[in-house]
Amino acid sequence: MKGEDGSSTSRSTATSFQRQASTQIKTSSISVTAQASNTNIEPGSTISVPFTVSSTTNGVVNDSATGMFTVRANNDRSYTSTSPSSITIASGDEGTANGTVTLTAPASAASGTDVTLTIEAENAAATDINYTVLRFSVVAKVTDITRPVCQTVSSSSNCPSSSSLCASSQWTFIANLTDGINGTGIESITIRKGNGTLNTSTVAEAGGADVTVATYSASCCSQNVELAAVDNVGNVGKCAGQATQTTVATTLTAITAITAAVNTTSTGGHTLSISHCLWISVVVSLLWK
Questions:
Q1: CA separation for the pair 76, 139 (Å, rounded)
Q2: Which candidate in 121, 213, 224, 241 could, as Cys together with 53 as Cys, close a disulfide (CB 3.0–4.6 Å)?
Q3: Quick one: CATH architecture of 26-138?
Q4: What is the pLDDT of residue 86?
C-alpha cells in the first residue's frame, strides 16, 4: 500500500509513505559441511573437497530423514570445478549423504591470490537451501631454495692513504651474480652498505643461466660496499667488496729510485742535489701522513 500525507502545513510538498511487507526468517533444515585437507592450491593442480549434506530438525541431524537434494558448486574465480548434480539421503543413511567437489586452478593462476568455493544443497521442493563456503590460497610450489651466488670480477682502485685526498679519487667494484640454471632468477640487487652508484645489466651464460653484472662506483671516501641480491622467491645472497689503498711499498720504491740517482764522488762520498732533497722531503711527508 502506498500513499501521500498532505495534511502537514509545514511542508510545501506531500510526504510519501509505504507499508512494507513483513519478513519471515526461519532456520534451514539442511546442513552442508565441508572440510578440505589442505587450504592451499598450486597453479595447474586439482584438489578434492569432500562434503556432507544432512537433514536436520531444530539443528540436530534427523536420523530417519530421507530425500534428494540438488547440489551446486561455484567459485569466484571461474576455475574449473566438478560436483554431483544431486545427492540422495536414503533410508538407513542416518540422515546424511556424502559427495565430492573438485576444484582446478589454471597454470596461469597468480601465486598469492585466493579463491572462494561455495557448495549449495537445495531440497527437491526448492523450498529450503543451505550452503558452505571455503577459501583456498593459490601458492606456487617453491623449488628454489638456493640463494643467489656472487663472483667478484674486479675491484679497481687507486685510493690514497690520506683521508684528506679521498674525495678526488674513485674506485669501482664489478661482480657477477646468478641464481643458477634451476633458480627463479634474480629479482633485485640493492646496496646494503656504501654510498656509491650501482648499475646492473643481464647477460646469458652458455649453460642457459642469466647472469646479472653489478657495477658499483664510489668515492674513495667510501671504501667498502655490500650488495644484497634477492631472487623471485625471497632467497637473499650477499656480495662484498673493498677498495685498495696506495701502499707503503709503492712509496719505498720511490725512495729506492731516488737513492740510486744520488751522485757518487770519486772518493766514494755522496753528493745530493737540491732537487733530490726536495723529492726525499715529499716522500717523508707522505709517509708521515
A1: 17
A2: 121
A3: Sandwich (2.60)
A4: 97
